[in-house]
Amino acid sequence: MKLTGTLIKNYFHCKRQAWLYYYGINFENELTRIGRIKHIDAGSEELVFGEIKIDKIKNNEVIEFKKTSSNIEGTKMQLLYYLYVLKNNGIVKTGRLKDLTYGDEHVLVLDSENLIKVENLIN
């Protein structure tokens, strides 16, 4: 199974949506297009590292932009997964999740508790 951050985020939002995404059945709508434009305006650089696409790396942080934090658990797990993949490749960073609609920010660290969450999710 090929894991991606978007697949993980979708899994927490709706398992059916995750299944559709995994099998390449994706629906783009006006909200998706607005989110893409907000990413660009926020300064997303979209760095590809293996199977993951990171919005931005600045100093010691991986920054993930979201149009809104309506699926906060899923987006946090997505960012923790990115930190996990990077750590397994010798790159240790913290994470910052930025809500572009409400201005909320969440700082995430891949500590032992979050490491277990990610490993359980992968398994």
Molecular structure report:
This protein is α+β, with helices and mostly antiparallel strands and 123 residues long. It has helices spanning 5-13, 15-22, 30-42, 72-88, 112-122, and strands at residues 47-49, 52-54, 56-58, 61-66, 94-99, 105-108. Strands 3-4-5-6 form a four-stranded mixed β-sheet. It has a two-stranded antiparallel ribbon with strand order 1-2. The mean pLDDT is 88. Helix 1 packs antiparallel against helix 2 (15-22).
What order do the helices and strands follow?
A: HHHEEEEHEEH
Radius of gyration: 14 Å
Q: Spatial order of the strands in the main sheet?
A: 3-4-5-6
- Kindly name the structural category: alpha+beta
Short note summarizing the structure:
With 123 residues, the chain is an alpha+beta fold.
Descriptive tags:
two-stranded antiparallel ribbon, single chain, 123 residues, alpha+beta, globular, four-stranded mixed sheet
Outline the secondary-structure elements:
Elements (H helix, E strand, L loop, with lengths): L4 H9 L1 H8 L7 H13 L4 E3 L2 E3 L1 E3 L2 E6 L5 H17 L5 E6 L5 E4 L3 H11 L1
Parallel strand pairs: 4-5
Antiparallel strand pairs: 1-2, 3-4, 5-6
Helix pairs in contact: 1-2, 1-4, 4-5
